[in-house]
Amino acid sequence: MKLRYNFRVYPSPSQRGSLARAFGCARVVWNDALRLRRDAYAKGLPRPAAAELSKQVITEAKKTPGRAWLGEVSVVVLQQSLRDLERAYSNFFASQNGTRTGPAMGPPKTKKKTARQAIRFTVNARWSITDGGKLRLPKIGDLRVRWTRELPCEPSSVTIIKDPSGRYFASFVVEADDKPWPELDVEETDTGIDLGLSSYAVLRGRKIASPKFFRRLERRLRRAQRALSRKQKGSNNRRKARQAVARIHARIADQRRDFIEQETTRIVRQSQAVYVEDLNVKGMATRRSRLGKSVHDQSLGTFVRTLGAKCARHGRTFVTIDRWFPSTQLCSNPRCGSLTGPKGREQLHIRAWTCTGCGTHHDRDENAEVNIRAAGRKRAAAMRHEAERHNACGEHVRPRTPGQRSSKQEPTRSPTAHRGGAGGNHPRLRG
User: Choosing from 84, 263, 277, 366, which is the catalytic residue?
Assistant: First the structure.
């Protein structure tokens, strides 16, 4: 499993200038290659190969007066920009052909100078970590890194990122092995998770309160945005005001990310199996629902993805339930199971209800968690049964001893088959 380790780096003023040149050169190479591919498509010519693009926009371009400054940065950075373009086109074609899952991908666009910029160095760039703990990059120098933990193995690449608030980060890609944690009793520790807005998540036996990081800093953000709108465009004061707004957004994002990491780790440690609804987060955040700001503040999609990745790494069962499953409306009493709960957006304010079938009083979120847990157990059992059936029907389930024949080994043909006797007309034996 590939993981990313992010660390804060502190470049000097001259190193910030070198990074700015590298960001700009990578952007220019992307745009030049994109223009060549667009021109070839408009003229009906075959698309240029990656080697041809690299020769034209990097090797030959360095010899021209207009692109001679491309030689001031590492060539690996420019080549990785071309690889990113190729990957963007591959995703676009796969999305058009229907072979790529997820939302539809559009064609690559021209890159502009934005607040967030990044470049990538692979092992071919010969970057290294010095004995003093600094990150040595070609044609940039030794960057001071704030190490918060050790890398598990040798990284395969490092990406230098500048975020909108002006901070610099080094993102290392490492190949880490799975670390299964000790198994727990499934019947006692499995949990369903009901995600929502009033409570962030309702689990088996406890609730996670909604942190509302954006709402807490919304007033400060409003003042900073109001100050930004009053600054003259192109002035230094406007640049400083823009960074002040970006710092507030970065603080909100950091708090939310730390909250998700801590809560997902706690859930995975305490639960052997986790069952979550497959929510339509984009549909929940539409303008018609009037809850878009609150939905985005929760960041439920990131929570579910992070939880699934940690379950896969640490040997926990992770099951998603169909989004159309009526977890809120269904009575969790095993003897009842009637659909008498609150329905529709008009009844979202109803947090507790009484079943008309059996008279059981339910908390809306706790009842949904019980139903999700029951549905998750059924789905997990069905998945295990399907896996066992597939293994039983497959070949070489257990290693064979020497000389043992497989159950699916073809029977020995009769000697007369090769001499035109019985079976000599079989298509595989003709000619």
Answer: 277
Place of tokens 């939302």: 103
The answer to whether 161 and 167 are in contact (CB under 8 A) is no
The pLDDT of 109-115, averaged and rounded, is 93
End-to-end CA distance of the chain: 50
Tell me what pLDDT residue 386 has. Answer: 85
Catalytic residue among 263, 365, 366, 369: 365
The pLDDT, as a whole number, for residue 98 is 87
Measured at the CA of 97, the angle between CA 92 and CA 102, to 5 degrees, comes to 65
Annotation says 194 is catalytic: yes
Beta bridge partner(s), residue 117 = 162
Q: What is the bridge-based pairing of β-strands 317-321 and 273-277?
A: parallel
Q: Which helix (H) or strand (E) segment is 172 a member of?
A: strand 168-175
What span, in angstroms and rounded, lies between the C-alpha atoms of 88 and 207?
41
Q: Which of 198, 223, 217 is nearest to 209 (CA)?
A: 198
258 included as an active-site residue: no
At 216 the pLDDT is: 94
Chain-centre distance for alpha carbon 409: 43
Do residues 206 and 369 make contact, with C-beta atoms less than 8 angstroms apart?
no
**Catalytic: 188?**
no
Residue 374 to residue 371: CA distance in whole angstroms: 5
Q: 201: which 2 tokens? A: 């998540």
What would the pLDDT profile of 315-337 be if each residue is shown by its tens digit? 999 999 988 888 888 898 888 88
Residue 365 to residue 351: CA distance in whole angstroms: 7
On whether the CB atoms of residues 323 and 278 are closer than 8 A, the answer is yes
Using CA atoms, how far residue 352 sits from 107, 357, 422, in Å, is 48, 15, 77
Which of 32, 84, 190, 194 does the annotation list as catalytic? 194
Instruction: Render pLDDT for 48-69 as a digit per residue (tens, 0 to 9).
Output: 999 999 999 999 999 999 999 9
Residue, of 397 and 354, whose pLDDT is higher: 354
Backbone angles phi and psi of 305, in degrees to 5: -65, -45
| pTM listed for this prediction | 0.83
| 160 touches 118 (CB < 8 A) | yes
- The DSSP bridge partners found for residue 161 are 118, 169
Per-residue CA distances from 271 to 1, 143, 304, 391 (Å): 21, 41, 15, 27
